[in-house]
Amino acid sequence: MKINKVFELLNIAPQPFTKLGLEKDITGITDDSRQVSPGQVFTAVEGHEADGHDYILEACRNGAALIVGSKKPENIPVPFLYVEHPRRALGILAAAFYQYPARDKRIIGVTGTNGKTTITHLLHHLLESSGFSCGRFGTVGNYMNGKSVEGFQTTPGVVDLHKCLYESRDDVIVMEVSSHGLDQHRLEGVSFDITIFTNLQQDHLDYHPSMEEYFKAKSKLFFMMKERGQAIIHVDDPWGDRLSNLLRGEGLAVTSIGGNDACDIQIDEVSDEGIRFLEGGKPSYYPTPIAGVYNSYNTLQACTAAAYLGVSKGTMVDALESFPGIPGRFEQYSMPNGAHVIIDYAHTADSIRHILQTAARQFDGNITHVFGFRGNRDESKRPSMLQASAEWSDGYILTLDDLNAVSHEDMTAALSKLHEEEGRAHGRIIPDRTSAIKTAVEAGGEGDVIIITGKGHETYKQSYQRPFSSDRETIVNLRNEMKTDVHQYQ
């Protein structure tokens, strides 16, 4: 790829001062000035925390052959190309540099507030079990060419994404698609064979101005489908119903899933164990490999997508029975005192309510909920999260989650204020997360349940009194400690 191709892709006529270098080969595309090497194109992107235009000189010193951006600098030694939307330009250039790798693969995108990780993991397992080689990009790690790939966020940066698609030898790629990724053009140049919408709940309103804008960001995925692309939408969710009608109005292919008679796949009965439904008037059933009614919906959407790729129902039922689970998603532990611990990533009011209700159906004992809120994130959802916990637990402990530059004192004060305004008598505050978990577990008895939400598979970002790096490590070490002193529970 040569520099003149950049002008062609961005539909910009070459300027006189660039003409001498138009035939130069481009060695790469990047928006990180630290990664620039000789011959690369550096695209200056303005982010929420840093502005790439401030690092143009660094990119030049590192050997950039061309700078693309929306703010023209003065006195730089290489050509500058002005564009109105650098993020979009970055995606266009990355897709072209890596020879449009999404065109030669079957790509499945999953979006929604809750359920993305579960569906992508289920799909990965279903497809691999049926003979496909399948890559997976998402919150709980990335998997490509039969091995883990480290270092990406939920939706990878657009350059990393195209590079991975180019290097992938997999038949199918299944990816979680975040609203941030869509809004920031991180999927520019990628077209999808199948798109899935789970639900839309209040979340990320620290980033999106309103639920309407959040919905619009999510909706972008469904207009990125290939010519024969297929959308699978849960229409019992009102935002899903709206999206389904919107897409049908545009003449796009939609499979609607819900309890309404007009749905393409009509849900008949749903439980923690499985989901019964009618498809084409014929009754069918899928078992749910992860507890929870909400996971039965996730299972149905994953199986519907796999069916579009030719996987038979019998193959899927067999595969669901061998599903290994997902780190940090309804992850269960039995403790020496007879209590049960569940670790989950739940971080919205709706997901908290679902997991507490599921535990209440599965266990007879008291439910204690340990959770917190992330600093510098959507504060408007905190009251509803606490209300869900207070309503469906027998006791809750507010504790710290990621502080994200908020001080320990300020976050503790925020917990106290919220507890005073929205809390109940059966709640308390223990700021240190490891101490909160220890307190909850040791107070439990036979059949009681301690549910720890918010972090799931993630590691801690700050230190606590006990030297552990995650909720899982805290529980495993606490269980071992309790085993050595098991007489106190006899």
Automatic annotation (TrEMBL):
PANTHER family: MUR LIGASE FAMILY MEMBER, UDP-N-ACETYLMURAMOYL-L-ALANYL-D-GLUTAMATE--2,6-DIAMINOPIMELATE LIGASE MURE HOMOLOG, CHLOROPLASTIC. UDP-N-acetyl-alpha-D-muramoyl-L-alanyl-D-glutamate binds at residues 33, 153-155, 178, 184, 186. Residues 26-98 form the Mur ligase N-terminal catalytic domain. ATP binds at residues 112-118. It comes from Halobacillus kuroshimensis. Coiled coil: none annotated. Catalyzes the addition of an amino acid to the nucleotide precursor UDP-N-acetylmuramoyl-L-alanyl-D-glutamate (UMAG) in the biosynthesis of bacterial cell-wall peptidoglycan. Residues 110-306 form the Mur ligase central domain. The modification N6-carboxylysine is found at residue 218. This is UDP-N-acetylmuramyl-tripeptide synthetase. Its cofactor is Mg(2+). Residues 328-456 form the Mur ligase C-terminal domain. GO terms for molecular function: UDP-N-acetylmuramoylalanyl-D-glutamate-2,6-diaminopimelate ligase activity. Pfam families: Mur_ligase, Mur_ligase_C, Mur_ligase_M. Belongs to the MurCDEF family. MurE subfamily. Pathway: Cell wall biogenesis; peptidoglycan biosynthesis.
